[in-house]
Write a structure and sequence with these properties.
The complex is a heterodimer of chains A (about 240) and B (about 270).
Chain A (H helix, E strand, L loop, with lengths): L2 E12 L2 E12 L3 E5 L6 H8 L7 E6 L9 H4 L2 E4 L13 H9 L3 H9 L16 H14 L4 E5 L7 H18 L2 E5 L3 H7 L2 E6 L1 E6 L1 H4 L3 H7 L12
Parallel strand pairs in A: 3-7, 3-8, 5-6, 6-7
Antiparallel strand pairs in A: 1-2, 1-4, 8-9
Chain B lengths: L2 H4 L3 H26 L3 H21 L3 H23 L3 H23 L5 H6 L7 H30 L1 H6 L4 H23 L1 H18 L3 H25 L4 H27 L1
Helix pairs in contact in B: 2-7, 2-9, 2-10, 2-11, 3-4, 3-5, 3-9, 3-10, 4-9, 7-9, 9-10, 10-11, 10-12, 11-12
Classes of the chains: A alpha/beta (about 240), B mainly alpha (about 270).
Amino acid sequence: MENLLEVSDLSVALGGRWVLERVSLQVAAGELVALIGPNGAGKTTLLRVALGLLPYQRGEVRVLGKPPAQLTPADRALIGYVPQALQFDRTMPLLVSELLQAMLDRRVPELTAVLQAVDAEHLLHREVRALSGGELQRVVIAAAIARQPRLLLLDEPATGIDVGVRLRFYDLIEQQRAQRQVGALIVSHDLSIVSRYATRVVCIHHRVLCTGTPQEVLQMPLLDELYGHPVSVYEHQEH
Amino acid sequence: MGWTEWLAFDFVWNALLAMVLLTAVYPVLGVYVVGQRVTYLGDAIAHSAFLGAALAAWLGWQMGAALLLVAPLFALVIAWFQQRTGLPPDVVLVVAITSVSATGIALVSLLEVPLPLSALLFGDLLAIERGDLWRLLGADCIGAAMLLLLTRPLIRIGFHRELAQAQGVPVQTVETLFLVGLALMVAVGIRAVGILPISALLILPAATARTLCGSFRAMRVTSALIGGLCLVAGFGTALWLPIPPGAAVALVAALLFGLVAGLSPLWKEFAR
């Protein structure tokens, strides 16, 4: 299977401190890889390096077969990115329809279908500044999926979203993976989601500590030590 | 003297045409300046007029030509310095405003050349000539092209810079084009309304519209209408009272902003 993201021996220093050291991982087409680890482990840094938003000191990174710095706008259109907890100017008047038009270059009637994917069609004519964190996250997720990406890089994408919509969102990602062979790297602290949807789990804390299937990784005693308390998987009830 | 009598003079017609050209694009562009959170930038570029005026007087150039050269170069220097140092934009812009004004005034003193301070600060709408009108039309064309080509990327950058960058928006190129275009427009506008009112015309209508509107489209239309209202009311005031037209325009814009921003919480409370 084609590798959509390949990271080899990656080391990244920020503020004079190594945040990532000799990290290697791959995301192949049709794989949903969950990246887990405690806060400050370097998960977001890894995503930002893959997107070319941060420089790296050592190692090699290839996204869709190219180093991040060489990705063209057409390549980037094939990458769906959802950042962690969006911070933006809440004083600016902007409708959801205007934001999506700017992001997707589509006409307003087509945008209803885009939002339907995350049960958010009712948000189309709302002001962006009046949305809750979870509602805004749904809009950004809808925009990322609507671009028909080949690779999804999602940084705690469902933070602040209620459990029903969260499961619907992950079902959608799973559907994209199974039907369109989309590859996804998802940072998540929700181990039940990881256990339910991931095809592979990579646990990092500045370095890769372990990797394997969810069943293998989530039962390792190492996780209890890493998170500072016993780790167990709680299954979300769908309705 | 009545309105019809005023209209017999060419300088009044030139001033009216200048107002139409200023209203057409400047307040709309201000919406993007406010959206990119670079409201001080227009002010900083406008202050490069001190340096431009000093160089023009020293080299024997026309002030308009000197401003067209100095303003975009100064804007690029600010952008480069900001990127290089990573300092907060407000710090960089205050340093830029202070240093460029001081350099201009120091040059004027050292070279003992005259500095048309009042014209620089408040412009002279009533002294607008045919050549100035053509330059304003050129500035409007630049502004219109920017609105046409950069609206979508600027909305995306204004919403979330990093997300836009990750999605393939050429953020640095868009920001540089916006900066240079804005600098050229400010340089041309200074001749008509001066350093202080050009900032007022760019920022205050957009800031007032932001208080009133719920969508980006409505904000653009409202900002243009408010800009037009401020120019007409300011110009009318300057015909009857001994106030420079540029100062009168800035005063009207500031009063309107104060009124709307002050009453807005009361209005929202009442509307509940």
